[in-house]
Design a protein that fits this description.
The complex is a heterodimer of chains A (about 230) and B (about 260).
Chain A (H helix, E strand, L loop, with lengths): L3 H73 L6 H17 L3 E13 L7 H13 L4 E4 L2 E2 L6 E4 L5 E4 L2 E4 L4 E6 L5 H14 L4 E13 L7 H5 L1
Antiparallel strand pairs in A: 1-7, 1-8, 2-3, 2-7, 4-5, 5-6
Helix pairs in contact in A: 3-4
Chain B lengths: L1 H94 L3 H14 L4 E11 L17 H13 L4 E4 L2 E2 L6 E4 L2 E4 L2 E3 L3 E6 L2 H10 L1 H8 L3 E12 L5 H10 L1 E3 L3
Antiparallel strand pairs in B: 1-7, 1-8, 2-3, 2-7, 4-5, 5-6
Classes of the chains: A alpha+beta (about 230), B alpha+beta (about 260).
Chain lengths: ~230, ~260
């Protein structure tokens, strides 16, 4: 009996160490898994950022290359023929399109909005719709034939006879509003989807209907509109 | 006799027990050893894995840093080239006697947001709530893309001539959307704080912003909104020619001027 005591103690110690090692091992495995998953997430995020920047940088260098070419061709022809002028006219057309100063047409969607339980259409609802159209890639937008450009304001005015002011023009808020948007082919469905989810969101306050069309025409910002004169 | 019998009987029994014990101990020790080896090997391989992934990580960070530097350089170069091109365009037109065309081109470009705008106006800084009590943090104490959009809409309604968010010019195609903790404006992402600058009538706009019920409500929810009047602000031009060109190619122009 006497010589068995240390043996048991020895066994206890050995098992204790064994248990400890097993625990350590398990912990280690868990920690490893966690660490690698963190590292992986971090790495994919980094990779994404790298890819985005690479794309952006290559686009920028292309743009810069084009600009340099344009400048050198214009400089060379400054005293010569009319090719420089031609390039400038092209630039002018580009700026006009971007400013909303040309009539445009194309495929797109048409939205009608009229008051529901709200007694009149609110500027905030029109703004929601316009922002959805923009975020789904609309290339040109108009409300009641008033072209929506970069600085177009859409605001409520009047309490007894509420109106909505767009580009300085007033429209009776109790009436129907027609909103048109031109899209690239591949973006039309996304536009319809976003408008449909907005219809769901606003179904009690406004009556909104949407349809797509192959021939949407949007006129240019009128020359005497306030937005045009303000700049 | 009984003694000797007993002894004779217990001797082999004892040695048998001892043998079993020894085998057991050997077995346990072997397990211990193999565990130890396994543990050490595992440790080494993890270390290797970790250092490899750290190396990869560092390489990506370095690449990202380089790309960011290149990006800044390219953007600077881009705005210089655009400036040079505009100047040259004006020279060509004026030299060839098209000064009217030069003036109208300048107007069109201004309306499109393709020129830098300088003037008096306001600066609005939007930040998330600074309340550090974590139990109190909720969605409404953070600035969302809708807040930024609200300010842009209100500034337009107040008659702003030009608006930028963190230096990103608002144009006809600008879309402000949420992308996780950042917001995206014109395809670039920005974290808080969002700084909205607008060339407009500073006093009238300041009053409108101070008295807007929705803004007062958002401030009461804890978000930080600071409005400052400025005597002189510079709003940068929009210069992403990819976007401008895409409108040119995608939109069918009816009776161009």
């Amino acid at each position: 009996m006497k010589h068995r005591m240390p043996l048991s103690i020895g066994a206890i110690i050995v098992f204790f160490v064994l248990g400890l090692l097993v625990a350590l091992q398990l912990k280690n495995i868990n920690a490893n898994n966690l660490q690698t998953s963190y590292a992986k997430q971090d790495l994919t995020e980094l990779q994404d950022k790298v890819m985005t920047l690479m794309r952006e940088n290559s686009e920028l260098s292309d743009q810069n290359q084009n600009l340099s070419d344009l400048i050198s061709s214009m400089g060379a022809e400054l005293s010569g023929d009319n090719k420089a002028l031609q390039t400038i006219m092209e630039e002018k057309l580009k700026a006009e399109i971007f400013a909303g100063l040309t009539d445009v047409s194309g495929k797109g969607i048409q939205v009608f909005m009229e008051p529901g339980t709200d007694a009149s259409v609110k500027a905030s609802r029109l703004l929601l719709l316009i922002n959805e159209l923009r975020s789904s890639g609309a290339l040109a937008i108009s409300i009641n034939d008033d072209r929506i450009v970069a600085m177009t304001e859409i605001r409520d005015t009047g309490t007894t006879n509420p109106q909505i002011v767009i580009n300085g023009n007033s429209y009776p808020a109790a009436a129907q509003f027609v909103i048109r948007a031109i899209y690239k082919d591949e973006d039309i469905n996304r536009g319809l989807q976003l408008v449909n989810s907005l219809i769901e969101q606003l179904q009690t306050v406004s009556i909104i209907t949407v349809s797509s069309s192959d021939t949407i025409s949007i006129s240019k910002l009128s020359e005497d509109s306030l937005t045009n004169r303000q700049i | 006799m009984p003694m000797s019998f007993n002894r004779a009987d217990s001797e082999p029994d004892k040695s048998k027990k001892k043998l079993v014990e020894n085998i057991l101990i050997m077995f346990v020790l072997m397990m211990l050893c193999s565990f130890l080896t396994f543990q050490i090997r595992e440790g080494i391989s993890t270390q290797e894995q970790l250092s490899a992934s750290n190396q990869k990580h560092a390489a990506y960070l370095q690449q990202l840093d380089d790309l960011q530097k290149e990006n800044i350089k390219l953007k600077d170069e881009n705005s210089l080239l655009v400036e040079e091109k505009d100047q040259l365009t004006e020279n060509v037109l004026n030299e060839q006697g098209y000064s009217e065309l030069a003036a109208s081109l300048a107007e069109i470009r201004a309306l499109a947001g393709l020129t830098e705008v300088t003037g008096s106006g306001v600066t609005i800084t939007l930040s998330d709530s600074t309340i550090t009590d974590t139990s109190n943090i909720n969605q409404s104490s953070l600035i969302h893309s809708q807040d930024v959009q609200y300010f842009v809409d209100i500034l337009k309604a107040a008659g702003a001539k030009a608006i930028a968010i963190n230096g990103e010019r608002i144009v006809c195609t600008t879309n402000i959307s949420c992308t996780g903790p950042t917001i995206r404006v014109n395809n670039s992402r920005y974290p808080v704080p969002f700084i909205i600058t607008a060339v407009c009538d500073p006093n009238a706009t300041y009053d409108i912003l101070q008295n807007d019920s929705h803004i007062i409500f958002r401030i009461s929810e804890g978000v930080e909104i600071a409005v400052e009047k400025n005597e002189s602000l510079v709003i940068p031009a929009f210069s992403d020619s990819t976007v401008i060109d895409s409108l040119m190619t995608e939109l069918e122009v009816v009776n161009p001027s």
